[in-house]
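Task: sequence design from structure.
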């Protein structure tokens, strides 16, 4: 991807021991001499000492896009860049593929259940490598724990952490109760909080905060927990097929997990902040996702069923009733994301098939 974006730049891969020996450690000046016009430096976290050389080079010649740095270990890369190149870089986080990115190549899943089961990691859609989805996701989870998470969290309770990760997967798409999660996992709440922070830093989970501006104390203030990739969550839960997934009690929450991730990826892929929230009153009225854009709140409801009904958006009517009494709140038409295959008008709102979710994300064209 970096080569396609900057085809004029030479490419160096520091995964290679030869390249690390040639340009790493005290040989950093060789890099600047050999590539005066810049370069793509892949797996830059393998040679963190080079960042100091780059800092000097960038200060002397601050040409935007001259140096493209990539890395597969977010924690190593992020800490090194923030320490050495603060204020000199623009950071792009690459999320798993969105459905709209898979769709043009004809590799996208054909049903919502299949999409949830597979998730969006690029290797699973690479036609050159026919990989077993279940095996690859299982191996990825093991590698993730042993590499990134072990480094971030300094885990000394591997069995407890394995259980904790699976408990998080089982709670994806639900309100987060740290005390309950910690108690079930047999760890302390501070440890659970630290592990959640580490999982978020490694882009395994994200926490969606509630929208409660101007609503006072009538709303729940607890965040919702989501896995960034529904396929990884399914793997951790031992779900191996679309039919098994549809019978699982967590199916609705995993569908919500996939849809919310798609909403966020759609915004991120357009270089826009997610601005995603959830909304829930103390008496249980809930909207799965709210996106704030241009002074409007765009409500999204998510259903795993193949049928769409106006009543599925009743919570949006509740939000509208508050809108008339609260200052500074304007609610756009609500959108129901569902497992069907037709776009429908539902009174003031609409239903959109799961595979068109990207087209429903504001700002709308």
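Answer:
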């Amino acid at each position: 991807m970096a080569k396609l974006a900057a085809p004029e730049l030479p490419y160096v891969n520091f995964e290679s021991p030869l390249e690390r020996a040639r340009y790493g450690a005290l040989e950093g000046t060789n890099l600047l001499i050999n590539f005066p016009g810049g370069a793509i430096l892949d797996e830059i976290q393998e040679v963190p000492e080079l960042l100091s050389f780059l800092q000097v080079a960038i200060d002397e010649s601050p040409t935007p896009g001259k140096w493209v740095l990539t890395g597969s270990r977010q924690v190593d890369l992020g800490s090194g860049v923030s320490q050495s190149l603060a204020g000199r870089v623009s950071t792009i986080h690459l999320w798993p593929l969105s459905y709209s990115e898979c769709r043009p190549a004809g590799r996208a899943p054909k049903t919502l259940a299949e999409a949830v089961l597979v998730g969006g990691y690029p290797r699973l859609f690479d036609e050159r490598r026919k990989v077993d989805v279940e095996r690859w996701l299982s191996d990825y989870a093991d590698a993730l724990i042993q590499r990134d998470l072990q480094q971030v969290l300094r885990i000394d309770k591997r069995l407890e952490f394995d259980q904790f990760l699976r408990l998080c997967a089982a709670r994806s798409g639900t309100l987060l109760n740290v005390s309950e999660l910690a108690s079930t996992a047999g760890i302390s709440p501070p440890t659970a909080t630290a592990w959640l922070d580490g999982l978020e830093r490694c882009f395994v989970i994200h926490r969606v905060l509630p929208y409660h501006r101007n609503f006072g104390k009538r709303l729940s203030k607890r965040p919702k927990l989501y896995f960034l990739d529904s396929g990884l969550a399914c793997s951790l839960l031992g779900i191996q097929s679309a039919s098994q997934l549809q019978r699982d009690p967590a199916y609705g929450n995993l569908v919500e997990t996939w849809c919310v991730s798609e909403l966020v990826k759609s915004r991120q892929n357009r270089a826009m902040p997610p601005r995603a929230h959830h909304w829930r009153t103390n008496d249980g009225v809930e909207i799965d996702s709210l996106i704030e854009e241009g002074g409007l709140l765009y409500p999204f409801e998510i259903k795993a069923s193949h049928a769409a009904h106006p009543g599925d958006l009743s919570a949006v009517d509740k939000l509208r009733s508050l809108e008339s009494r609260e200052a500074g709140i304007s609610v756009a038409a609500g959108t129901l994301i569902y497992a069907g295959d037709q776009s429908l008008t539902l009174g003031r709102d609409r239903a959109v098939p799961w595979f068109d979710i990207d087209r429903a994300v504001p700002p709308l064209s």
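Residues 2-84 form one domain.
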